[in-house]
Automatic annotation (TrEMBL):
The protein's name: Ubiquitin-like protease family profile domain-containing protein
Ubiquitin-like protease family profile domain residues: 39-224
Keywords noted in UniProt: Hydrolase, Protease, Thiol protease
GO molecular function: cysteine-type peptidase activity; deNEDDylase activity
Matches recorded under PANTHER family: PROTEASE, SENP8, PUTATIVE-RELATED (PTHR46468:SF2), SENTRIN-SPECIFIC PROTEASE 8 (PTHR46468)
Lineage: superkingdom: Eukaryota
Family: Belongs to the peptidase C48 family.
Keyword Hydrolase: yes
Single biological process term from Gene Ontology: proteolysis
Length: 257
């Protein structure tokens, strides 16, 4: 079952959503419409949901924040599109990047976005979104691209930027006997995890148009969240979620208003 992005702006989420009161509205079209955790959406952002247009980073960050609330887990971390872009293109020192990435090592699953923009002066540039996910137990970065791996080069660029920082330790739970046994079983199935971190492309449902990549990113992120919470702890032999069984091109209609 797909989550409708339209439902995220419904008043039924009032407990975690702040609708801007009428008297606070700014007197021009691009008014602030919604505040959700730390994400602010304006009228121009919501207009993108009507399609047929490319979604921006604020819509994706909003949905990631929504998934974090809907599927709370200490094992999953979403890296915002803005930070993912910075990590892929930053000219800052390795020590500075490491200081940021260091806290991510404790998570089993870290979700990044990939954008085909490498111009730091154009933070709202690019024409395609995809997803890069780090699975700590298998030491693997998996790329999910809904348009014929068009973002492969950009995904590898992000992978190269963070792989050593993110995988240099196993995380806080790595010394437990249970974790060691799980890791041994998984390495029998997926032996390269003993060396890693590795990059791999994963089978991904393909979009039927040139602008709905953001919807696939959000739908796949939702599947990964549910898999991590419901399946990963029950089936230690399951290396990655089966995206193709849960996401198809119906998201192009069901996730827009």
């Amino acid at each position: 079952m797909h989550l409708s992005l339209a439902s995220c702006t419904d008043l039924s989420l009032a407990s975690c959503t702040e609708i801007v009161p009428f008297e606070k509205k700014v007197p021009f079209e691009d008014e602030k419409v919604l505040s959700y955790n730390s994400v602010v959406l304006r009228r121009s952002d919501l207009d993108l949901l009507e399609g047929p247009v490319y979604l921006n980073d604020r819509i994706i960050e909003f949905y990631f924040s929504y998934l974090s609330m809907l599927h709370p887990s200490e094992d999953i971390h979403f890296v915002t599109p803005t930070i993912s872009f910075w990590l892929a293109n930053s000219k800052d020192s390795e020590s500075f990047i490491n200081a940021f990435v260091e806290p991510l090592k404790t998570f089993k699953v870290v979700i990044f976005t990939v954008n085909n923009n490498d111009d730091m002066s154009q933070t709202d540039g690019g024409t395609h979104w995809s997803l890069l996910v780090y699975y700590r137990d298998t030491k693997t970065f998996v790329h999910y691209d809904s348009f014929k791996y068009i973002n492969n080069w950009y995904a590898i660029k992000l992978y190269e930027a963070v792989k050593e920082h993110l995988s240099s330790t196993e995380g806080s739970g790595s010394t437990s006997e249970e974790f060691c046994q799980i890791r041994k079983r998984r390495r029998k199935i997926y032996p390269i995890a003993a060396m890693g971190p590795y990059f791999r492309e994963h089978s991904t449902p393909q979009q039927t148009n040139g602008y709905d990549c953001g919807l696939y990113v959000m739908a796949i992120a939702g599947v990964i969240c549910r898999w991590c919470i419901a399946d990963l702890k029950k089936n230690h032999e399951l290396l990655f979620p089966y995206i193709m069984e849960h996401v198809d091109n119906s998201v192009e209609s069901t996730m827009r208003p």
